[in-house]
Design goal:
six-stranded antiparallel sheet, alpha+beta, 302 residues, 10 helices, globular
């Protein structure tokens, strides 16, 4: 587990230390343009930033994706996630576990785990409340948070009471698409495959994308079109599987109610630890055990 701010800090320091990187902030990219040899990011300021390749890593509401794919607004999943970070000493002592812990209830779940060398605990709690509109990082009151978890066991509810400065996100994703490439423009991370949080893989898939794309570009030298094809073919099916199975996890494991929940409980009781790990081996095994060219060849053959 890593605090997102700590991870961003690693990237920022790497950018600052690399002679070939110019790190610019407050640049609103609104579109892209290209010809046969160059691609440009068009900024809201009317400036153009030009290079041999444009990587659209601009998230769930990617402007680059909208120009390339044109699939409209994200799909609202019907769930709202509330997040808070609390000092470790405020976490109930009997729940200070060195593990990601899930409490599953009727149309809701709670997750907590330690961060930043045990300085804080991250709380991410989600309820199925069918919000009418999508929003992100909206400040909410403690009472509003509690309203989504009325029937949670007192031991788990005690964790919620320790949360402060809650912010809310409406969870969204998109359907998988094969269109990640337009000439010298390519999508990466949530711009290519935004997913729900139920596999906790959004940032992980983006990091895998980056490594795979870098390898493909390095191995093909100046043949950018070939490199982009290899990258997309190597990543497409893995990321689509995570996208679609994350949806199913939200429906059938995290948020069922009534008989649906009873069935979930029985199936989980009957699944041994070994079987559980086997079921997830495809997700956590080394995604780079084969090179992009090998993965592309396997996809083509299938």
């Amino acid at each position: 587990m890593v605090h997102r701010g700590d991870l961003h800090g690693i990237f920022v320091r790497a950018c600052e230390a690399h002679p070939n990187v110019t790190l610019r902030t407050d640049c609103d990219v609104v579109a892209y343009e290209q010809n046969g040899t160059e691609a440009s990011a068009a900024l809201k300021s009317s400036e153009r930033v030009t290079g041999c390749l444009l990587i659209g890593a601009d998230g769930l509401r990617s402007r680059i994706r909208q120009q390339m794919v044109g699939d409209g607004a994200p799909r609202i999943a019907g769930h709202t996630t509330y997040r808070s970070v609390i000092p470790t000493e405020q976490m109930p002592e009997d729940l200070r576990w060195n593990a990601a812990t899930l409490w599953a209830g009727a149309k809701c779940h709670l997750v907590h785990y330690p961060l930043s060398g045990w300085k804080v605990f991250n709380l991410a709690i989600t309820c199925h409340n069918d919000p009418a509109e999508a929003f992100a990082a909206r400040p909410v009151t403690h009472e509003e948070v509690l309203a989504g978890f009325p029937d949670v066991h007192p031991r788990a509810k005690a964790i919620i009471h320790h949360g402060r400065d809650w912010k809310a996100w409406v969870t969204c994703d998109r359907d998988p698409t094969e269109r990640w490439i337009d000439g010298r423009v390519v999508l990466l991370g949530d711009a290519a495959h935004p997913m729900l949080q139920y596999f906790a893989q959004g940032a992980c898939m983006a990091l895998e994308d980056a490594v795979c794309l870098a390898d493909a570009l390095d191995e093909t030298q100046d043949d950018i079109a070939h490199a982009l094809d290899r990258y997309r073919n190597a990543r497409l099916l893995r990321t689509a599987r995570v996208q679609l199975q994350a949806r199913e996890l939200g429906t059938h494991v995290y948020h069922p109610a009534g008989v649906h929940a009873l069935l979930r409980n029985q199936l989980m009781r009957e699944t041994s630890l070994e079987r559980f790990c086997e079921n997830l081996a495809w997700l956590y095994e080394d995604p780079f055990s084969e090179r992009p060219s090998d993965a592309a060849r396997r996809v083509a053959q299938s």
